Amino acid sequence: MVKANSVALCLAASLSAASAQTFQRLGTCPDLGCVLPPDQQDFLPGQEFDIRFEIHAPKNGSEAFNNGVPDEKFTATIAKDGQKPKSIAEFFKHSEPALEKWTFSWFEDLFAEDANKPSVVNVASKAFRRVALYEPGEYTVTLKYYDGQTTKAHWTVRPLATKKKAKNVVFFIGDGMTTNMITAARLLGHKTVNGRYQSLLALDEFPVLGHQMSHSIDTFITDSANSASALYSGHKSSVNAMGVYVDSSPDTHDDPKVETIVELLYRVWGSAWGAVSTAFIADATPIALTGHTRRRSEYGVLIDQALHGVSNYSWTRTAGPDAYFGGGAEQFIPGSGSYQGKDYYAEFANEGYSVSWNKTALLAAPNDQKALGIFCRSNLPVWLDRNIYTDNLATLENNPSGAKGPATDLPGQKDMTLKAIEILNKRGGDKGFFLMSEAASIDKQMHTLDYERALGDLLELDDTVRATIKKLEDLGILEETLIVVTADHGHGFDVFGSADTKYLRAQEDDRSKRSAVGVYERSGLSQYTQPKEGVQYGTGANFPLNWDPRYAIAAGLGANPDHREDYGLGHKPRVPAAVGANGEVYVENTDRPGGFVVNGTLPTDEAQGVHSLTDVPIFARGPCQETFGGTYSNIDVFYKIASCLGLGHPHNKTVEHPGHPGDGHARYSYLPT
Amino acid sequence: MVKANSVALCLAASLSAASAQTFQRLGTCPDLGCVLPPDQQDFLPGQEFDIRFEIHAPKNGSEAFNNGVPDEKFTATIAKDGQKPKSIAEFFKHSEPALEKWTFSWFEDLFAEDANKPSVVNVASKAFRRVALYEPGEYTVTLKYYDGQTTKAHWTVRPLATKKKAKNVVFFIGDGMTTNMITAARLLGHKTVNGRYQSLLALDEFPVLGHQMSHSIDTFITDSANSASALYSGHKSSVNAMGVYVDSSPDTHDDPKVETIVELLYRVWGSAWGAVSTAFIADATPIALTGHTRRRSEYGVLIDQALHGVSNYSWTRTAGPDAYFGGGAEQFIPGSGSYQGKDYYAEFANEGYSVSWNKTALLAAPNDQKALGIFCRSNLPVWLDRNIYTDNLATLENNPSGAKGPATDLPGQKDMTLKAIEILNKRGGDKGFFLMSEAASIDKQMHTLDYERALGDLLELDDTVRATIKKLEDLGILEETLIVVTADHGHGFDVFGSADTKYLRAQEDDRSKRSAVGVYERSGLSQYTQPKEGVQYGTGANFPLNWDPRYAIAAGLGANPDHREDYGLGHKPRVPAAVGANGEVYVENTDRPGGFVVNGTLPTDEAQGVHSLTDVPIFARGPCQETFGGTYSNIDVFYKIASCLGLGHPHNKTVEHPGHPGDGHARYSYLPT
């Protein structure tokens, strides 16, 4: 925010230490007047969004002001550079919204939290719904309040992009995937001779490489909700939020929204779209394509939004995904996990979807019909359990129908992605398609320090990318399809040597066990690419020949819970730390019993590893690939894709969608005259 | 190696488990017959190299063979694809070398080492010195031994590159620098507003980004010697080696050599060259430009090689660097650290060098004269101590003259690099120049878990890159200069949150202290970019405004010695672990006394962190920049630069260098007829 007078300046200076770190009053609002979207946000021309203004009056704490009475007579204007400011209502031809009021509280630091001394803030607010800016250029929003205080927000509308350069986009997300993990996966799946790889990852053969910065709008470490949202909408948000800027109101569904790539694509071109994930399908990365909430854990309503759109406000509809494959039956089986207890298999079927509960049904589903495939409860079992330790599958209670017993006949990311492409190509026709395909358990298994399972799913992603290129070629659409592979954030994982697991197990004390680690000249060569005597996995090229060699990779994260380490592969998915009765986390004694104890670096209520700061890689091939080189923000990924798809128009462009009344609702936009 | 008969095949299968991991008989030689350079090596046309053959006869252990008697009657041939094999001597017009014999021993695994049961190997060998291949294409070397066993090595000579596309190359190496560290350095030195950086790193603005794989020829974790050597020569080697393939002989200076970029550049074009490092100048990264040894710790002789070239064999000379700036006075002050106890300041002066011991002298050195600048003993103090905690400097005994007391008036990487460019531009003239400039202490400070000091030196590197672009522009040579910035390997560092250092210090037990770490929504914003009350460092833009904010980055490595962590900045350079009398490493109690103990993941004789696996980034701008996108091996960096410099010729191209008799020595080459 640009501060326009000295009162605001002093205030901001005194606040910055308290409000910008660890705990925040409202991350995007260091002043007492808040503009959402805040300062320095970008927009695609014609991208629809909501605006909210908030005036904060802290009742107590370091920021106490005006006896806790917020200014209800605040005013706001907007001006394009070089033009005269107009009131928001006049500019967007929007009626003046009703005043809203609420109270929230927060802790200023850990000492305040320990003492349970919250700071209480009273708020006055107005929201302008569903507006858009069509003219590229710079805009300034000015909020005036408290008789002379000012908060300004500078907004940039990016250049027009009216021409489609790619007919289709396949957008792969390796959740939590870093360059470090890609290097490690290559080491496991591909053999070297005298320092030369005999085969490479599909990713290694992409012509263009970039780095994108994953941080949130108000924190330097992101979660998967708001990073996905940045990739899909061009707007960064806060942890746990998607498709909205986070406001301070109690309602988690009234936060100011932004239009996403699939909403835009369906509105502007009427294209087909789909999502594939190895997570539960209501998980942040797939659901952020259509979700608008600041609380990602509201899974049921988010599935309803994917099918029916936002219900509490007029908003862009997508008519639902054309292909929607993953886990997460909890939100479909009628009951406590589904929205309003309804049967979402039936809800989707009523909208014309085929419904598949296993791989056989998936492969047999008609390509000209919308398709839902939910293959288990919770996340899909990982590649390693589906292909190597298959006996783990039978122990699960994850049947997608809701019946007792395990899910069987499970598809993997490759099966789901290739089928989705067939359907989307058929249904998109001349209008093309957008598919997001997520390798979710790279992240999930890094959280539990289960490195081999994470890398197995990374190799599955790479195998899927390879198969996708071939499928697009077979369909004759490779050259008109942009393929982008990236991640949403990192984990601080790296490999630092090898470990002689036989020697480690033979040592009796923790310090001696650590002698099993070989670094530098003792790291040796990957033994994962050496055939395992008497064993053939049948998993084909590009996967390890031995998943549990005597000499395993020695790897770790900087961010750990207490855990025991043996650097080997656990037969069962890993649970590194146990949560005690009081929420305190300790070493899980059944995990890696022959290993040595490593105490954690995280708070003792964190049972898993956490995300990290690092820029993540982005690989591109196809139309517009040349725009993906170099280093940039995650929001730029949206603008690059949206430009390539021709989604930035100088006027409201909404194709006719018979039977989707949502698109006829009121829309308030600034149309250049 | 390709095995040509069943005996070799069986042998190899039985050996692979023992010889490929942790301990190795000879990493590039799984068979008993060894060809060096081994299978699947690449060469620049005309690049000079040595060949060695070894026949191994293990006396005992799992590979015992032929009663420990090596075959002395081995034969070797070479054939270009589609041509008839010729003996090595005939092909290269080389005299038949004398037979050499020696014995070495190794341990097959940690159990054997614990029991002190070495495996002993007798060896017969021949070496062919200073040959070259001029015709691009595929070659096969066949070694026959033990009456029917065969080892083949396939070699590739890369395409000709006779035309200079860049006049100059400035090659920056951030030692140990990863994408994760670049992201962290950006967070410390550059401010965000609502998720948008207000300024960026110089690296962020490079147009082309690639990833290079850093592994050694025989291990997946590299050190800085052989990774530098790969970048400079296009040949991977083994840990601790540079400019050679490692053989098994006792002499560390008879290993088969390969010609480096500066040897080639001086021989082919007579260009100027220089090296700048913040390490001691005999350290691996700078010295590998001219060093040929398998033992990087032979510092004295390596300095002599930099000035006088290899003395025990006929080999390419460079006439010494034109600019040579760094630390490491130990190898120049006459005494135990210098080669043959000689005064290397005098040796350099005798060859016409100006000699500088401080920044003032450096800046005043004439640009038309060769220049040596050695500014301290050991490594240069890091940027943070030179600019923030300057009182640390006075406590050092590092005067470069050999006198007692500290070095004063120290230059940084930027001063040294800009001066080197002035000298090289003057001295190179029309012939151009090559400069390597290393930010060495990114690596050195990561080894000691001193993250802020490492990131300070990364920001100094970035500042140097920015200043270099400007200097080249001022000199009118920016457009004819290729700038490449990369690393030689990684460390498994990442940031995973923020830590409230005030809260951490106030807690009394280890587990409570960990509650000071804020992850995700509690990570907050960088406080390094907020002004520190009452303090101005005067370090200019692109550096932190506060180096020790209350909310510090919470960061770590996966590979740690035992240490204590408080996530804050230590006033003194960090020593995380103490080495006990028996070589056992424990927590250093004077380090971070208010922190909590983290036990290590490394062997208990490792007092520091170690290198990691990750691919490292490479940034390029200038002529040939388009060749640096995507993912490739570190050796490809050499071929890209060498091709851009026009160093691949179809015949022996050696410019006349009066007064450098080394260039007139015998050279055995295969010249196409």
TrEMBL record, chains A, B:
<feature type="binding site">
    <location>
        <position position="438"/>
    </location>
    <ligand>
        <name>Mg(2+)</name>
    </ligand>
</feature>
<feature type="binding site">
    <location>
        <position position="175"/>
    </location>
    <ligand>
        <name>Mg(2+)</name>
    </ligand>
</feature>
<protein>
    <recommendedName>
        <fullName>alkaline phosphatase</fullName>
        <ecNumber>3.1.3.1</ecNumber>
    </recommendedName>
</protein>
<feature type="binding site">
    <location>
        <position position="285"/>
    </location>
    <ligand>
        <name>Mg(2+)</name>
    </ligand>
</feature>
<feature type="binding site">
    <location>
        <position position="283"/>
    </location>
    <ligand>
        <name>Mg(2+)</name>
    </ligand>
</feature>
<feature type="binding site">
    <location>
        <position position="447"/>
    </location>
    <ligand>
        <name>Zn(2+)</name>
    </ligand>
</feature>
<feature type="binding site">
    <location>
        <position position="489"/>
    </location>
    <ligand>
        <name>Zn(2+)</name>
    </ligand>
</feature>
<dbReference type="Pfam" id="PF00245">
    <property type="entry name" value="Alk_phosphatase"/>
</dbReference>
<feature type="binding site">
    <location>
        <position position="443"/>
    </location>
    <ligand>
        <name>Zn(2+)</name>
    </ligand>
</feature>
<dbReference type="InterPro" id="IPR001952">
    <property type="entry name" value="Alkaline_phosphatase"/>
</dbReference>
<feature type="binding site">
    <location>
        <position position="488"/>
    </location>
    <ligand>
        <name>Zn(2+)</name>
    </ligand>
</feature>
<keyword id="KW-0460">Magnesium</keyword>
<keyword id="KW-0862">Zinc</keyword>
<feature type="binding site">
    <location>
        <position position="611"/>
    </location>
    <ligand>
        <name>Zn(2+)</name>
    </ligand>
</feature>
<feature type="active site" description="Phosphoserine intermediate">
    <location>
        <position position="224"/>
    </location>
</feature>
<comment type="similarity">
    <text>Belongs to the alkaline phosphatase family.</text>
</comment>
<feature type="compositionally biased region" description="Basic and acidic residues">
    <location>
        <begin position="654"/>
        <end position="666"/>
    </location>
</feature>
<feature type="signal peptide">
    <location>
        <begin position="1"/>
        <end position="20"/>
    </location>
</feature>
<dbReference type="InterPro" id="IPR017850">
    <property type="entry name" value="Alkaline_phosphatase_core_sf"/>
</dbReference>
<dbReference type="GO" id="GO:0004035">
    <property type="term" value="F:alkaline phosphatase activity"/>
</dbReference>
<keyword id="KW-0479">Metal-binding</keyword>
<feature type="region of interest" description="Disordered">
    <location>
        <begin position="654"/>
        <end position="673"/>
    </location>
</feature>
<keyword id="KW-0732">Signal</keyword>
<dbReference type="GO" id="GO:0046872">
    <property type="term" value="F:metal ion binding"/>
</dbReference>
